[in-house]
Write a structure and sequence with these properties.
Rossmann fold; globular; binds beta-D-glucopyranose; alpha/beta; Immunoglobulin-like; 703 residues; 19 helices
């Protein structure tokens, strides 16, 4: 970090009250006011996280409909996380940062790093995992990558924004230990380990206070404890009170309405400063943070050296493809049904998701993609004209009427949950589609179903009401499997879905989240065996909703309040403690290849423990495997927790030494009395495996 403090004070002295206030609130839907006479430009922002969003009019939720704001559509957070590949998370960041800069932005509103507390949360597709360690490791890489391009990574949504139902007002009642260990971890780490320059404060309340003006959350935790000196930007419309927001360590108020001068931190603040209700020091501190950030990204100071970025390059598309490939998870492959043989004569492709584009939906994460390769397009381009590829939709997705008003304009009104009630007309259509598919299936030896969700349910502002597949898909899949048990099923979803109805019948199942513009190419490469799958689940796939901790205690989505009574028992921790067998566990994912594991040992250097092994690819495919390290303090009542992982690529026949380091942090817990993290001494059980359910070797050692 550089030291700009003197320059900052110089600039601060020259600013008028009005100029300062102009810099701390939206003067457009995605920008603040600059101060031209001092060379301070407006701060320009854009959503993330799946790419740089299209441009809007400054004062209305109307796209500008330009032809120069198409951009690279990157895989979503849950897809990137499924790669378990730190380097790909970093490359994702590099692409996003370069594209943001290329489009002239200063702040990219990404990554989205909330913890997946319930599979129903509509924004899980943006988030990375139910596990804080995995989320943190990947988020650190993402932020490093983004900020290389002199752009602020504004990570969101701080904090405990784990549901969309009542997101604008819900009060999350949660223990400090739970926040520190589960919900804060990734935010804390991107500040400490990646010098993140931006944090977006969430809509919801925590323990009675709105995140965007909570003095405990922003002043104490973020600024005092974590020493954060850069930008805190409110979520759009998350500020409700001038004095509270002014005195809290929030720097910029953004919102969705165009009455910019009337924002809490606009004219109302000028008045309160003038009549002495708010001390000018609060305002000055915000300006200091903003100026400091501007120097860091070279909007001020050495502006001639600022990176110019680039967008829609071939390199960016290649990275989108690489991530997509590794984000695909092979859940089942009985009798080696996969990969399919490219020399087949005919193929039946079933399912609306085979042809649907997803880029331009989902809420603020929507992307105006330069292109999007659908699964069907990917298959056809892979197979060429000699293979007869037949497509039918199989399930009917009722089209929604187009809204006259952009959803974001209405986003400060709570949305009502949409119940899936199908009209008679829809039911008739569903039956027709199903019958057509089942009839055709009898004629085909090779069938692929592209099933799952779309952004009607993986959507900002709304949670799902259950984990079942919509549009009668369970029935379709079961019926097709009856006709042809070798049918390959790809399930697309941003978070866990229930597959229990047909999981037993199916032989070959692939899963992925939204994997971006190269979806079809990546899926075709996996399905036809050009590349072995290597993705692993970052969320537990359960047999039923009540298996998840928040649902088992009836605390999702709550009403005005939601109590996190499950405490740290989020995701797989709960499944382990309660010994509930999931359908597919955390960390799970198969390969076309096989591996052998040998020479397990550990050694210690100062505070670091190193877990060593050799990994050999003994199968017929070049492939990657991810070694995972889980630990547990024998004397404590906690379950195994992920504390290390390493993804290793091996050509067939190749052997590599793998070494995973556990530092002090791995053995630290939040001590509620000391109010800080402290190492818990004692005997630790260390489990090494390729998923939570496939532990290959265990040690015990004393820390
Ligand atoms: C979302 C944020 C987003 C902002 C601006 C809000 O509705 O919660 O994630 O960055 O809008 O589009």
């Amino acid at each position: 970090m550089n030291n700009y403090e003197q320059q900052i004070e110089e600039v601060l002295k020259q600013l008028t009250l009005e100029e300062k206030v102009g810099m701390i609130h939206g003067d457009g839907l995605f920008q603040t006011k600059g101060v031209e006479r001092l060379g301070i430009k407006p701060l320009k922002m854009s959503d993330g996280p799946m790419g740089v969003r299209e441009d809007f009019q400054n004062g209305a939720w109307m796209p500008l409909n330009q032809t120069d704001d198409y951009s690279t559509y990157l895989p979503s957070g849950s897809a990137i996380a499924s790669t378990w590949n730190n380097n790909l998370a970093y490359k994702y960041g590099q692409v996003l940062g370069r594209e943001a800069r290329g489009r002239g932005k200063d702040v990219i509103l990404a990554p989205s790093i909330n913890i997946i507390r319930s599979p129903l949360c509509g924004r899980n597709f943006e988030y990375l995992s139910e596990d804080p360690f995995l989320t943190s490791r990947l988020a650190v890489e993402m932020v490093k990558g983004i900020q290389e391009s002199d752009v602020v990574a504004c990570a969101k949504h701080f904090a405990a924004n784990n549901q969309e139902t009542n997101r604008l007002s819900v009060d999350v009642v949660v223990k400090e230990k739970t926040l520190e260990e589960i919900y804060f971890k990734a935010f804390r780490d991107i500040i400490k380990k990646a010098n993140a320059l931006g944090i977006m404060s969430a809509y919801n309340k925590i323990n009675g206070y709105f995140c965007s003006h909570s003095k405990w959350l922003l002043n104490k935790v973020l600024r005092d404890d974590w020493k954060f000196k850069h930008l805190v930007i409110s979520d759009w419309g998350a500020v409700h009170d001038t004095k509270e927001a002014a005195e809290a360590a929030l720097d910029i108020e953004m919102s969705v309405t165009n009455d910019f001068d009337d924002y809490n931190l606009a004219n109302p603040l000028i008045e309160k400063v003038k009549n002495g209700e708010v001390a000018i020091e609060h305002l000055d501190n915000k300006i200091r943070n903003i100026l400091r950030t501007m120097y860091e990204i070279k909007m001020l100071g050495a502006t001639e050296n600022r990176k110019s970025g680039a967008y829609n390059t071939k390199e960016h598309q290649n990275i989108a493809y690489e991530i997509a490939l590794e984000g695909i998870v092979l859940l089942k492959n009985k009798d080696n049904v996969l990969p399919l043989n490219k020399t087949i004569n005919k193929l039946l492709v079933i399912g609306d998701n085979a042809i649907r584009h997803h880029s331009n939906k989902g809420g603020s994460a929507e992307i105006k993609a330069l292109y999007e390769i659908s699964p069907l397009l990917g298959l056809r381009t892979k197979l060429g004209g000699n293979v007869d590829v037949k497509f039918v939709k199989g399930y009917y997705v009722p089209e929604k009427a187009k809204d006259d008003v952009h959803w974001q304009e209405l986003s400060l009104e709570e949305r009502v949950k949409q119940e899936k009630v199908y009209s008679e007309e829809i039911k008739v259509k569903q039956k027709e589609y199903l019958e057509e598919a089942v009839k055709l299936a009898q004629e085909y030896e090779n069938i692929i179903i592209f099933a799952g969700l779309n952004h009607e349910s993986d959507l900002e502002g709304q949670d799902r009401s259950d984990i079942k597949l919509p549009y009668e898909q369970d029935r379709l899949i079961s019926e097709i499997l009856k006709v042809n048990p070798n049918t390959v099923i790809h399930v697309l979803s941003g978070s866990a879905v229930d597959m229990s109805q047909w999981n037993g019948q199916a032989k070959a199942i692939l899963w992925s989240s939204y994997i971006g513009m190269e979806t079809g190419h990546a899926l075709a490469s996996i399905i036809f065996g050009d590349v072995s799958p290597s993705g692993k689940l970052t969320q537990t796939f359960a047999e039923k909703l009540s298996d998840y901790s928040s649902h088992s205690i009836g605390e999702f989505p709550g009403n005005d309040k939601v109590h996190y009574y499950e405490e740290e028992s989020v995701g797989y921790r709960h499944f382990l403690t309660k010994q509930i067998k999931p359908l597919y566990p955390f960390g799970y994912g198969l390969s076309y290849s096989k591996f052998s594991y040998d020479n397990f040992n550990w050694d210690r250097e100062n505070d670091e423990y190193r877990i060593n092994l050799t990994l050999k690819n003994i199968g017929d495919f070049d492939a990657s495997e991810t070694i995972q390290v889980y630990i547990r303090n024998i004397n404590a009542e906690e379950p195994m927790i992920l504390k290390g992982f390493e993804k290793v690529f091996l050509k067939k026949g190749e052997t590599k030494a793998v070494s995973i380091t556990l530092d002090n942090e791995a053995f630290s817990y939040y001590d509620e009395e000391l109010k800080q993290f402290a190492v818990k001494n004692g005997v630790y059980q260390v489990a090494i495996g390729t998923s939570l359910e496939n532990i290959i070797h265990q040690f015990e050692f004393f820390v």
